[in-house]
Amino acid sequence: MSNKVKSIIIKINKLSININNEITVLLILYQEENNQVLQNLEKIKNFKIIIIDNSNNIELQNIIKNKYNIYKYIINKENIGFAKAANIGINLVNTKYIIFSQGDCPMSEENIFSLFEAYKKYKDCFLITPTFINENMEISYNAGPFPEKKIDNDTIHLEGDICAEGISTAIILFKKEDILNIGLFNENFFIYFMDYDLCRRIRNIKKSAIQTNDVKIKHVHGNLKVKNIYKKIFSRNYNFSYDELIYFYNINKYESKFNKLKKKLPKYIFKAIINLFFLKFSKSVYYFALICAYYNFNKFLKKNSQ
To answer: CA-to-CA distance for 291 and 286, rounded, in angstroms?
Structure first.
């Protein structure tokens, strides 16, 4: 081996050590398959790792703790939501940078190094995210306009990096100091629209959310991991409707959506009862979720108007 090659290897190893000491990988878990999580951890085991599990999976915790050196492992007895779980993890981090990821996104060390290098290229970058690919290795959606613009969220086929209005928080890299200064994730959100809310606050302080084309990671969108079919229907429709109202409340544009839902409420109640009577449970649960979203958001309005 030549001296030149040796010096390159030494340089790479030093870079790896430095980055490993500067970055914490924060994983938010909820009912992922055990094998999937273990495979993902194997690829990033040299980093400091914090795990927040919203599914109370004691079995998985025992397997992981016996196999890997995990800095912090928090088990929540119930699903407290993505935003609250994220904030718990962020407050536990003691490194300068955080890689925030869902448990079903298979990252490698090389992905993290490349994402970190891309992040350092931009002076005003608040957070950076990779380009997502689907199971067919095709580019999938990650970044786009804010929802109120009513523009179709078409997949952006990049030729380079872009600065986007909204970025998916499935995988993002950012400084802990920056996220603390901006106020962490808004815990009024459960899982939906929290990324748009964060990116809006980033824009307000004239910082950027960037999607880089240099890093591509597999991620399947819309794969809600609730195993019970009725819980899945309720969770998806309730949380989406409620979180959407919260998002538009924050930008003072909620009234039309809220009034539209209010107008349809009698019909939704009727349909929930009729479908239950005819044993069409999926449809009944769907309408019940929208009814609950309305009433709980109405409680939120009353509480915040006092």
So the answer is: 9
Do 190 and 249 lie in one domain? The reply is no
Q: Which of 197, 218, 239 is the last residue of a domain?
A: 218
What are the structure tokens assigned to 247, written together? 């998002």
- Structure letter (DSSP) for residue 163: E
179: in domain: yes
Does residue 190 sit in the same domain as residue 276? no
CA distance 89 to 79: 15
Buried/exposed 211-249: b ≥16 CB within 10 Å, e otherwise: bbbbbbbebeeeeebbeeeeeebbbbbbbbbbbbbbbbb
CA distance 51 to 138: 29
Q: What is the extent of the structural domain holding 68?
A: 3-218
Q: State the Cα–Cα distance between residues 290 and 292, nearest whole angstrom.
A: 5
Question: pTM here?
Answer: 0.89
pLDDT per residue of the chain (306 residues) written in tens, 0 to 9: 555 544 444 344 445 546 667 999 999 999 888 998 999 999 999 999 999 999 999 999 999 999 999 999 999 999 999 999 999 999 999 999 999 998 878 899 989 989 999 999 999 999 999 998 887 778 777 888 899 987 766 666 667 888 989 998 999 999 999 999 999 999 999 999 999 999 999 999 999 999 999 899 887 655 556 778 999 999 999 999 999 999 999 999 999 999 999 999 999 999 999 999 999 999 999 999 999 999 999 999 999 987
Q: Measured between alpha carbons, how far is 70 from 48 in angstroms, rounded to an integer?
A: 7
Cα 260 from chain centre: 28
Q: Are residues 183 and 242 in the same domain?
A: no
Provide the edge-to-edge strand list for the sheet that holds 125-133: 72-75, 48-53, 23-29, 97-102, 171-175, 125-133, 208-218, 162-164
Length of the chain: 306
